[in-house]
Design goal:
Layout: H1 2-19, H2 21-25, E1 27-31, E2 36-41, H3 42-111, H4 115-147
Antiparallel strand pairs: 1-2
Amino acid sequence: MRIVVLIVFLVLLGLLAALNTNFLMYPHTLNLGFATYPNLPLGLLLLAVMFVPMLVFYFWVGVAKLRAEADSARLLRDMEALRVSLDTQEGSRFAQLQSHLDQRLGALGAGTPGNAELEAVHARIDTMSRDLNLQLAQIDDYLKRKLG
């Protein structure tokens, strides 16, 4: 977008210069205080000097855009590191919960004769664990696609 604006501005400036060539080339006397330059086309000089701040601001905007992109990339890396850290913490919590449930259900199974019900509960827990792991994997894939 910046380059389009710059090109439009340069085309308009070139058109203005082409239409007013006599004015731009009219000789003037330029007095700088320490030197005097007679018969200098002052309009052409001012036109040329106008390009300098235009180019400075063009490159200044480019540098600002690069800085913003670098900040955005750093933020995305930090978010990815945080996501990985949270995933590992959540995984350890699920492992602790699974071991606790296995221990509790093992104690229940040893004390009661209803092993068929206990097996059904174990199967349900395993199914829910697989579903949860699948959903976490899908969330992980989605975040990886979105973040980079």
